[in-house]
Design a protein that fits this description.
By secondary structure, this protein is of the alpha/beta class. The chain has a single domain, classed as Barwin-like endoglucanases (Beta Barrel), CATH 2.40.40.10. Helices cover 26% and strands 26% of the residues. The protein has a six-stranded mixed barrel with strand order 1-5-2-4-3-6. It is globular, with a radius of gyration of 15 Å. InterPro entries: RlpA (IPR034718), RlpA-like_DPBB (IPR009009), RlpA-like_sf (IPR036908), RplA (IPR012997).
């Protein structure tokens, strides 16, 4: 129940959260691919079954259940996906999305497309520090948490 409430709050506030994540330097650019029938029904790292019709993704380091806005910068299409699995590992891809997400991003024909990832997260200083580490970024000095 709590997870659903948190997800709903994130989606309602996603516009402001996206702007804040952009300002905080929490975006990542790279390539995305999608998974479909080959993984449909299999268990994911999170323990739930992969459903190609859900808006989900695999990311190598973000915590499970993190909601990530994936934007195709070529078409400006975007969707919000939830991390349920690990991967991709190595190569140029930074995220694998479900078939449903790939359809919303307009990438079904090519199978791969450039993307911008923006985690829709709690923006407290402790959480920001954790996400900079998970995204493997150096935290900008302007965004360093300060003592009260």
């Amino acid at each position: 129940m709590l997870r659903g409430i948190v997800a709903a709050c994130l989606l309602v506030s996603s516009v402001s959260a996206t702007a804040l994540c952009q300002e905080a330097g929490l975006q990542r650019e790279g390539l995305a691919a999608y998974f479909a029938k080959e993984l449909h029904g299999r268990r994911t790292y999170s323990g739930e079954r992969c459903d190609m019709w859900d808006l989900t993704c695999a990311h190598p380091s973000l915590p499970m259940d993190t909601v990530v806005r994936v934007t195709n910068p070529v078409t400006s299409q975007y969707c919000d996906v939830r991390v349920v699995d690990r991967g991709p590992f190595g190569g140029a891809r930074i995220i694998d999305v479900s078939y449903a997400a790939a359809k919303e991003l307009g990438m079904l024909a090519d199978g791969v497309c450039p993307v911008v990832l923006t985690p829709l997260i709690d923006l407290s200083p402790d959480t920001l520090t954790t996400y900079w580490e998970l995204f493997d970024f150096a935290m900008p000095s302007s965004a360093q948490p300060t003592a009260p």
